[in-house]
Amino acid sequence: RKGGFIERRDRRTTPHLALVLMAGVLRMSDNHNIRNWVSVMDPVLNRLLSYFGLGFSVIGPLIEYHGIRRPYFMKVNDVLAEMEKNHHDAWEVVTENGKYSQFLTD
User: Which of 36, 76, 94, 101 pairs with 4 at a CA distance of 20 to 30 A?
Assistant: First the structure.
């Protein structure tokens, strides 16, 4: 830290909060044998997750639910396989360097 601010190189090496949260969701999914995710979220959040290869598929229209939201669906194994190929750095964070990659073989 320098003057109360995180230096630029620190920001580049620190995983994005969204990835860390999705890593937690993956661990809980593994503990409870959940292989598909359904979510209702702000479309902006889905665009952010898509940047890391974690984009959900739209399954319904925009709705008013604590703000404008949209329902989404994801098959976890399909998304992790795609992430491993195209967003490997994010995949390493979410799967804890492959520890939770058994989703790919289920």
Answer: 94
The DSSP symbol for 59 reads: -
Long-range contacts of 14-21 (CB under 8 A, 24+ apart): 15/93, 16/52, 18/45, 18/48, 18/49, 18/52, 18/54, 19/52, 19/54, 19/90, 19/93, 19/94, 20/93
Q: For 31-78, what is each residue's pLDDT tens digit?
A: 999 999 999 999 999 999 999 999 999 999 999 999 999 999 999 999
Which residues, listed in sequence order, are joined to residue 5 by a DSSP beta bridge? 2
For the chain, helix (H) and strand (E) counts, in that order, are 5, 4
Percentage helix, strand, coil for the chain under 3-state DSSP, each rounded to 5: 50, 20, 30
**pLDDT score recorded for residue 56:** 96
